[in-house]
Amino acid sequence: MPTDVDAGRSGLDLGDSWTRRWTVSWRAGGDDTSCSVHDLVHEPVLTSDPMRHFTWRRDQRHRPGLQFLTSTGRHHGAESLEESRVLLALDFAGDVVDVVSQPLRISFATCGKRRAHTPDYLAVTRRGIWLIDVRPEPLIKEADRESFAAAAEVAVACGWRYAVAARWREHSFAGLDAMASRRRLQSDPLRLRPVLLAEAGGGRRFGELAAATGCEPVARAQLLHLLWSRQLGVDLASPLQDRSLVMPAGEAGR
User: Fold this and answer.
1) What is the separation of C-alpha 72 from the centre of its chain, rounded to a whole number of angstroms?
2) Which range marks the domain in which residue 86 is found?
3) Contacting residues for 53 by C-beta, under 8 A, at least 6 apart
4) Which of 91, 234, 240, 251 is the most exposed place for a label (fewest CB within 10 A)?
5) pLDDT category of residue 60 using cuts at 50, 70 and 90
């Protein structure tokens, strides 16, 4: 769930011509490039390389790594488990064309000094572009709120959207993780998918659907795949379990 960023806006220097005084830098082909926020929308930042590397050592508290996205067919960097979860959610949400990890560094002015901030993701979707930061709500400090507010201003100036992923709705990620375990399931040798799609036409419980096929263990895996690929829908606000109501795509609140 997103968090409000307005609280950090009061300390920003948003006076006349701020878009020309604030700068943005990014990396492409091993070279660093920069421009003003005013000119950013005309630059190829959507195809930039990550500003930082995603390496891990034993004394680190966070867990950087790579997360595979079926929507892009590539691995994308994450600096923590929370960021990996956000990538998984983006993959499920649909309409994702590309995701750039650590896409750019914003150098912005506050009332007292200049600061810098590197947002976590730039997500290109068929419905628009999102600049995203990821920070668990209990860990957000006042300086973070100011950085988030600055990133939000840059996003608005470019015609993008901005969000801070700060917390999950109860039960939602557990269900998402279960579906993701079968997201790359390609084959259907028993032809169970057409049966499951037909049986779910009027809405049925997850456990009932799986049992109705006569091959319940395999049907459960296929059901998870159909839910992940959004051919069927389920309400992720509740735990995903046998009594969860499975509906045709578009009829379930997810």
Assistant:
1) 13
2) 6-165
3) 77
4) 251
5) low
pLDDT at 62: 63
pTM of the model: 0.88
254: in domain: no
Residue 128 three-state SS:
strand
Contact 244, 238 (CB under 8 A): yes
Phi and psi at 172, nearest 5°, equal -65, -45
- Is residue 38 domain-resident? yes
Which of these three, 165, 189, 209, is where a domain ends?
A: 165
Instruction: Let me know: does 175 contact 236? Beta carbons within 8 Å.
Output: yes
The H or E element spanning position 152 is helix 142-158
Q: Which two tokens stand for residue 147?
A: 């950085």
pLDDT (tens digit per residue) in 14-47: 999 999 999 999 998 888 999 999 999 999 888 8
CA distance from start to end of the chain: 13
201 sits in the region (left: phi over 0; alpha: psi -120 to 50; else beta) called: alpha
What number of other Cβ atoms are within 10 A of residue 85's Cβ? Answer: 19
